Amino acid sequence: MIWAALAFFVVAIAGSIAYAAVRGWRLWRTVGGTSKRTSEAVGRVSASAATAEARATRLTANTERLSAALERLQEALAELAVIRAAAAEPQALLATIRGIVASK
Question: How far apart are CA 97 and CA 103, in angstroms?
Answer without folding.
Answer: 11
